[in-house]
Amino acid sequence: MAKSKYEYVKEFETDDKLLRNVFILVRVDGKGFHKFSAAHQFNKPNDVRALNLMNHAARSVMHELDDIVLAFGESDEYSFLFRRSTDLYQRRESKIVSTVVSLFTSAYVYYWNDYFTDSRRPLYPPVFDGRAVLYPSEVEVKDYFAWRQADTHINNLFNTSFWALVEKGGMTPKAAEVKLSGTDSKDKNEMLFTEFNTNYSKLPAIFRKGSVLLREHILKSLDKDHIIPTLPETLPGSTSADASVAESTMDTEEDTATPSISETPSIDNKRPLESDGATDEGDPTSEGAGESSGEFQAPPGFKRMKKGVVIDHIDIIGPKFWSGRGAYILAPEKRKKTGP
């Protein structure tokens, strides 16, 4: 850059580099989304189209920023965890937060029509804000995600109960609020079951548990271009129905039917996942990601292990996740060679 007498103004810039050797967590949150969801007639209490659009936007962020090792989303918010050693933008807070928010918002608008097929674009621009929080150890990281998933459950149970009273019970919103005031989770579950024949625990896991984005191996079939995430057959706190929802996010076929929980357009219906964000096992972008236990071996009939962004709806509260599928997230990172 050519020097000039005006360059002194750079001295007014603040140094906002974040502390090293701690985890950076960026949370993106919708601004004014009660109004936005009403204007766009989101289904109540949950609109799977809106949730999957959020998931698509989050996955787009992870594809662009390799140092994000985990993401969790619920409602109109998403949290992104960076690996402890990240040096993205020299750890400048303003650059990191603005980039994440910009990527997320642009993807949300860009992929809008893939989910809301009855409107080519939003009626007005959605707005998201963002913040960065530093966590010094694994304890705080685990507790943060436990907090967000617990919040998912609390909010969804209340909203499910509230809208059941309004839409099925014929109550006014004010009367529904009064009835739910002072109730605990047991009371709400009992009310849903006895008054509306709804077993809350059987509702789709995406509503009850939120969405978890992981970097996992993807397998390519030897006989056809078909890819699957390396999901275990059974997961702690999940059901076979949950697994089918997770696997559907890997599908690349277009779906023009009216969306339902199992028929919502894939979060990647424009191109195969393996060519969009998945990297060869030896790719530098996966350096330091770690593995939960040793080298992963491809089962018979599959070849060329890759890593890609996989979405699932599972429990992340408690040790099972962090010692299993999430073990790589907090595992000691490989040191890069600096010499010959």
UniProtKB/TrEMBL annotation:
Keywords: GTP-binding, Magnesium, Metal-binding, Nucleotide-binding, Nucleotidyltransferase, Transferase, tRNA processing. Pfam families: Thg1, Thg1C. Residues 229-303 are annotated as: Disordered. Residues 6-136 form the tRNAHis guanylyltransferase catalytic domain. Gene3D superfamilies: 3.30.70.3000. Its EC number is 2.7.7.79. One of its GO terms (molecular function) is tRNA guanylyltransferase activity. Coiled coil: none annotated. GO terms for biological process: tRNA modification. Its cofactor is Mg(2+). Belongs to the tRNA(His) guanylyltransferase family. This is tRNA(His) guanylyltransferase.
